[in-house]
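Work Package 3 (structural annotation) set out to generate three-dimensional models for the target panel prioritized at the project kickoff. During this period the team completed the workflow that converts sequence records into discrete structure tokens, so that structures can be stored uniformly alongside our sequence database. As a representative example, we reproduce one entry of 463 residues exactly as it appears in the project archive.
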Amino acid sequence: MGKKKDGVNFNPYLVLLVIVLLCTIVSYFVAPGAYDREKINGLNVVIADSYHPVPRTPVSFLEMYRSIPKGLEGAATMMFVVMIIGGVVEVYNRTGAIGAGIKSLLQLSRKISSQWILAVVMGVFCVIGGILGWSEQIIPFVPIIISLALALGYDSLVGMAISGFACLISFAVGPFNVYTVGTADVIAKLPMFSGWELRLAVLVIVMALSMFWVLRYAAKIKKDPSKSLMKDIDQTELKISIPEDVHMDGIKTASLLIMAACFAFTIFGLLTYKWSFNEMGAIFLIGATAVGIINRMSPTDMTNAMVKGAQDAFPGALIIGLARSIQVVMADGGLVDPLVHGLSSLMGTASTYSSAVGMFIVNLFINALIPSGSGQAMAVMPIMIPLADMLHITRQTAVLAFQFGDGISNTFWFTNGTLLIYCGLAKVPLKIWYKFIIPLQVVFFLLQLVFLYIAVTMNYGPF
């Protein structure tokens, strides 16, 4: 049995490092070329029809290794915020508030179906991903949800699915996603978040299908644990230990309300004042300080909790930095522009609908190599927009095709560092994840084709 476990486990750091090595090797063989770029609204935007040969810039042995610290530097802000939130979560853990909250949910599950609890939790994370555009930011909360799922009699795959997966899948089609739709709208010179009504319809359907898929699996393994895909994986260490004497009281209730207020205030700031990761981290630090004070934690205890939580969150934060290293190697090796040019040039003679589908599929494969939504938008949209104009496809449809190609495949491509983090936290091997998700991916692929047809048919606007 032990050998079987070793065979299905994977090391997410090794996966990303192998991709860095492969990109380095490819940089010696790809036909070099580049687009000219200009500054528009603070973004370096590609000039269409400016593709031209350039000298080859293969990545040297030293540059390959240097891409790792450069990737960590480029992702530093996001990494540190993830670690800060990890520290904040540890403060809540040490007050007993999270344990008491889980215990209360377990007691509630005796009165109502645990399926309803899963549905509510998954709905909350879908809103966080679909409306706020969060994915990496919820990493420290995922182990808590995994522990809750295990306590309710499910497996860690269910816990990962109702939290991390829920965020990723709703992020993919979020109507107000500033990282993907927002960046693409700026490049396309569309009103920010215009066409949100159709995207909201897609989000609702994707959420409903995802919830059906996850809850169906959860109900099946709750009834018969032998049907769990994780039955051969030891998940005992994923359970958060809850002392018998822990119970919900006024102070713990206030602590959880402060956490909820931090979420609400962060949402308000992001939507109203365009806050970024730094403000987000500051708000949660303020909340942790308040919780520590009302729970009579000493400054030393609060600091130690923050450090311990940050340490626990570091492995996930490191994956974010390593994923960014892939982008560094691709940029240094001159791989991005030839990739974009080669794939986009395949769509020049297709029909309107076929071209829209082609944009979607091209972006789907580009997403495997450019996991950053905003980075992919800046690389691809300046080419997709003039192509859409020439093929009489509305720019709004081109943005939708980009969003589809960039988004839902984030739950499939193993180059997505965030997906690797979630799988690692839940001890879910990639082969098990693919067995769980591929049938749903097929359904989503067909759904996206349908909505692209609707967009083309209705002349999806405003223009």
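Strands lie at 37-40, 43-46.
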